[in-house]
Amino acid sequence: MKRFAALVAVLALVAFAAPAFAANPFMDVPMNHWAYDAVSQLASRGVVSGYPDGAFKGEWKATRYEMASVVARALAYVDMNKASKQDLELLKKLVVEFKDELDALGVKVDELDARVADLEKGVGKWYFSGYLRMQQTFGRDIMQGGVLKEDDDSWNVNRFRWNIKKVIDDKVTMNIRLQGGGGEDLGVELAYLTVKFPWDITANIGRFWLDWEGDFYATDWWGFAMDDAYITDIRPTMAVSFNKSFGMGDFSLYVAHDDNAGPGEDILAKGRFPFFGTDPEGFGPAVGVDWALASNLTSDRYIYGARLNFNFNEMFSLALNYMKYDYEDNAGVGVYYTFWNKQNGWLPNVVAYGPKNYFQFATLAADVETIWGDLVINFKPGITLKGQYFMQDNDPAWQATGLLGGGVAYDDSPSAWKAVLEIDQDVLGFTSLWLEYAQLDAGFVFPNGASPYGWMAGDYFCNDYGQVEADTTLWMVLAMQRWSEKWGTYVRYLDVDGSQDYNNWTVAVTHWYTPSLAFELGYDKLGGDLDDDFIWLRTTVFF
Q: In this model, does residue 180 exceed pLDDT 80?
């Protein structure tokens, strides 16, 4: 402590040399002065660094000049994310006490006043935001009631979201989201608390989205995913997450629980799970499901996750991730479907055929365990190289799904990887550019139930459980051009070599009628093994 006191004195006398103060700056601050305890409190709560708890509790006596130097350094290094309103008020009190000395040191305290004002303004208030999105599709082939309808038109309120935020105090925030659209009634999609704890720990508690892969998929102008997360981007019924920041990054823990996850009989019943089309071999429509083979389709599940992220510098970051979808009652086998034809009657163990966009997505109730790493390299502002590598250890039921339709069992330890080069429009001038290449082993599972590369036209290389059907390679290219505040365009190209070899072109033009209201007109074309094209119009308003 004596060395520390001497260091403060030297800094005060040499580094912060200044003209004479209005009051005598070398007058001792009395040992029982509240300022000693105030700085110690701020240090113990992590608001300021460099002053261990107890450093100002009677072990040395400071002059007003020395104490002002301490306050000046505190102001320079204060962590505004950790500081509460009470902490900042304490700093303000210190500033008032040593105002003359701080003025002589040339210390600016305007930011502190502004921060306190912001806290006072925000606490206790309600905040509302959201959007309404409507979509019309023209000329798309769809399956309806077991019959293929070509060149069908559809109009719907695609989605409505209303976000409600309540800042309860400087430590607790409540978040609620109401969502409807797509034929659904308005319901509560999100409901959770964000709580700030000491030691720079933040927790989310309730029903919320968890996404650890947001840097690794492309989005449109408003953040809607054009290719999605492989493992995360999930919203279970109830979850708890903790995030701890440290000097070079952060560490996260996550646990969640869902009741009756996976496709049950109520979902698979005829009319709700459209596996009732006609297969290419000429069999009639599927009219039933062999329930004897469809065991343990639903189960309570836990989801466990951990993430360790290192930001080594502005150029380089690395993250290690783990997530397990743990079902209490794993499925014993995959689901087999039963078809009927006049020659042979019931044909068991035949998988449903046909374009996968006619099928509703489902999740098999069987364990999926994934470890993956993220790498981000920022070569220069606006040019970024990104990569991910995934390794899975899956329940045997996931292997059994490969046997559907007379196939072979999948490997129980599939892997996948992808690499992305992202270039901002500020660099190229006329367009941004997203180049993505991925390889996925047969049997790799997207346990979040996502359609990773679906965008408008849907995915066609996964089975009905979000599992890759064959060894797959794909390219995705996205070029977006923002011509003005009113106009933007983009072109997206996807090329897939997997269980089906196909490509998908999307071309769209966007007009912002106002900053909050936008119209987007697009054209989609499926080629290769698939053949379909359609036009779509989206109207989106944000509030």
A: yes
User: Final residue of a domain: which of 80, 100, 122?
Assistant: 122
Phi-psi region at 372: left, alpha or beta (left = phi > 0; alpha = psi -120 to 50): beta
Q: Is 128 domain-assigned? A: no
Q: Are residues 166 and 94 in the same domain?
A: no
Residue type, 194: T
Same domain, 402 and 483: yes
Residues 463-504 have pLDDT tens digits of: 777 889 899 999 999 999 999 999 999 999 999 999 889 999
- Decide if 50 is inside a domain: yes
Pairing between β-strand 201-207 and β-strand 184-197 as defined by DSSP bridges? antiparallel
pLDDT score at 5: 43
Query: With contact defined as beta carbons under 8 Å apart, do 46 and 131 qualify?
Result: no
280 shares its domain with 345: yes
Name, in order, each residue with C-beta under 8 angstroms of 358's C-beta and a sequence gap of 6 or more. Answer: 142, 143, 274, 277
Query: Of the candidates 98, 122, 146, which is a domain's last residue?
Result: 122
Q: Which residues contact 519 (CB under 8 A, 6 or more apart)?
A: 510, 511, 513, 537, 538, 539
Give the integer Cα–Cα distance in Å for 395 and 375: 28
On the question of pLDDT at 18 being above 60, the answer is no
pLDDT digits (tens, 9 = 90+) for 337-377: 333 333 443 333 333 333 322 223 345 667 899 999 999 99
Is 398 in the same domain as 499? yes
Closest CA to 332 of 293, 363, 301, 384: 293
Please, which residues bridge with residue 302 across strands? 257, 326
Strands, E assignment, 13-146: 126-144
Report yes or no on 127 lying in a domain: no
Tens-place pLDDT, residues 267-304: 333 333 333 333 444 433 333 333 333 444 567 889 99
Q: For residue 331, which of 363, 371, 296 has the smallest C-alpha distance? A: 296
